[in-house]
Design goal:
The chain has 19 helices and 24 strands. By secondary structure, the chain is α/β, with parallel strands linked by helices.
């Protein structure tokens, strides 16, 4: 890390509007060669738009371009496509994966940069008949993976790999490119375990030490403090402050980011739930790649918030995905005293169970449809709500859909231009809020919510957690919340089940010692147990 390096990238007077809505306002920012420059702000603050401008993403130029200039080493860059950005030496690791599942890791790393070698045919008919130099490509891929301490074989197919592995492959692809001068990391650790995140941060430090400018976008304040040289805070499209990281703190950064002091701490007593469980799971097995469940017993009581935690790849995400029919499952599930069929998502949804998936792009959203349709879609399909007229000729009740969306947008503070905006145009955190709004529109009695705050800022995070707490406390909703962030589980859950190696390791009270959670997650025995009997 070089805090005194020369300025490599400069944003000068950069502004951007979408349909009359100004999302960036006169941004002036410098990124130095060899530094790790953190960029932080609430969802909708303008971070992604600023990076889309840098990378020449089509969405910028298809919507009227932008005002101001972006310079490299003092020279104006008129980047109009990602290919031009790559030619300038700019790489970007996106928050959402851009891998081809049917390709190997090597093929994904070398895509559009394949290495070829002469063949008998090419010597006669020309270069276009050269063959792939698979050996050299594999060697390059192996070198990039080694920089990330990733031991998986480079010839492995991407399909079915855990999301943590996919994130490393995205990064390896950028590392493999020649002539890289600047790298943008957009929430690179959002899907990683603590150990994987540490390896990644070490790799980022190494890249910076080689003179590469790093733009590090993250909502994890502890990572920003640990890895960055400087931090820039955006709020509502404006640059609020740029500070040397050593001269600031997580508390100050969060206050600058949201304009108010925000903390996620438990502010209520732990509730103990007894009596007949509303949901009972016996010997559940789920064939979810990377999150396989190997025989879980679970009990959830009416009105409680049950947390499910554990390290990545241990099976915690597979529980909700199996019960909801997203991945093949076997076992026995009883809900409100009635058997709930597995591998039948429609029947589960119709019974009063809703699901907010951790995969908001793959499972949660219709990206090319409006926010209002996304919010109402499942209620329309499963419960025939927001429809009017006889069954043989049902018509969409547009007025009711609009009103519902408007209410949800206000309640969840979804940052958008309005209910008709396409979901795919929203920032990641606001897409997550739309997924929550869709689930709540079903008026469920039981809500499964997986990684509800992944990739969203601390202000939005507190809003979502407060909403879940209110649904349980004030409306009697039963909630099963799966999260990789233990602090979140401890802030609102009544009891926390830890999953290890595809099975329940035990149940703890949210106020149990940190050491007990750590021991249970790693397969050890805690010093004490607490909470309700959930297994």
């Amino acid at each position: 890390m070089d805090q005194n390096g020369e300025t490599l990238l400069s944003f000068k007077g950069v502004s951007k509007s979408y349909g009359g809505n100004q999302v960036l306002k006169d941004i002036n920012l410098e990124i130095r060669a060899g530094e790790i420059h953190a960029l932080i702000g609430e969802n909708g603050a303008g971070k992604s738009t600023l990076m889309n401008i840098l990378f020449g993403m089509p969405v910028i130029h298809q919507t009227g371009g932008f005002e101001g200039t972006v310079e490299m080493a003092g020279k104006n860059m008129a980047i109009r496509s990602p290919h031009e950005a790559i030619d300038y030496g700019i790489g970007m690791v996106h928050q959402e994966f851009m891998l081809i599942p049917g390709f190997t890791i090597t093929e994904n790393i070398k895509i559009n940069r394949e290495i070829t070698k002469p063949s008998i045919a090419s010597r006669i008919f020309g270069k276009r008949l050269e063959t792939l130099d698979v050996k050299t490509m594999n060697q390059d891929a192996r070198a990039a993976l080694n920089k990330l301490d990733m031991s998986i074989e480079e010839y492995t197919l991407v399909a079915g790999l855990p999301v943590g592995h996919m994130q490393f492959i995205e990064i390896a692809r950028e590392i493999d490119k020649s002539g890289i001068k600047a790298l943008v990391f957009d929430e690179p650790t959002a899907v990683l375990t603590e150990a994987e995140a540490e390896n990644l941060l070490a790799a980022i430090r190494k890249l910076a030490s080689e003179g590469i400018a790093i733009v590090f976008i993250s909502h994890r304040l502890d990572e920003i403090i640990a890895v960055s040289d400087r931090v820039t805070v955006l709020r509502d499209g404006e640059l609020i402050a740029t500070k040397d990281t050593k001269d600031t703190s997580a508390v100050e950064i969060s206050e600058l980011m949201v304009g108010r002091q925000v903390t996620i701490e438990r502010s209520h007593e732990v509730r103990v739930h007894t009596g007949q469980p509303v949901l009972e799971v016996k010997n559940l097995k789920v064939a979810m790649p990377g999150e396989r469940v190997r025989g879980i017993d679970l009990k959830v009581h009416k009105g409680e918030i049950l947390g499910i935690g554990g390290l990545a790849g241990q099976g915690k995400l597979g529980i909700a995905n199996g019960i909801m029919g997203v991945f093949p499952a076997t076992g026995e599930v009883t809900f409100n005293g009635q058997g709930l069929p597995l591998n039948d998502a429609r029947t589960v949804l119709a019974s009063g169970v809703a699901f907010v998936s951790e995969d908001r792009k793959g499972v949660g959203l219709l990206l090319n449809e409006s926010i209002e349709l996304n919010i109402a879609f499942t209620a329309m399909q499963i419960k025939d709500e927001y429809l009017q007229g006889p069954k043989i000729a049902r018509l969409i009740d547009s007025k009711a859909i609009r009103q519902n969306a408007t209410d949800r947008i206000e309640a969840l503070d979804i940052r958008c231009t309005g209910p008709t905006q396409h979901a795919g145009r929203l920032s990641g955190g606001n897409q997550q809020k739309v997924c929550v709004a869709r689930a709540l529109t079903q008026n469920p009695t039981l809500l499964f919510v997986s990684e509800p705050t992944r990739g969203i800022d601390i202000g939005a995070k507190k809003l979502v957690l407060d909403l879940l707490l209110s649904l349980s406390r004030d409306h009697g909703m039963t909630i099963v919340m799966t999260s990789s962030e233990l602090a979140e589980l401890r802030s609102i859950c009544d009891s926390i089940v830890i999953v290890c190696e595809g099975q329940v390791a035990g149940s703890l009270s949210p106020d149990a010692p940190n050491a007990d959670f750590g021991l249970m997650m790693s397969g050890g025995k805690p010093t004490q147990t607490g909470g309700n009997a959930h297994a």
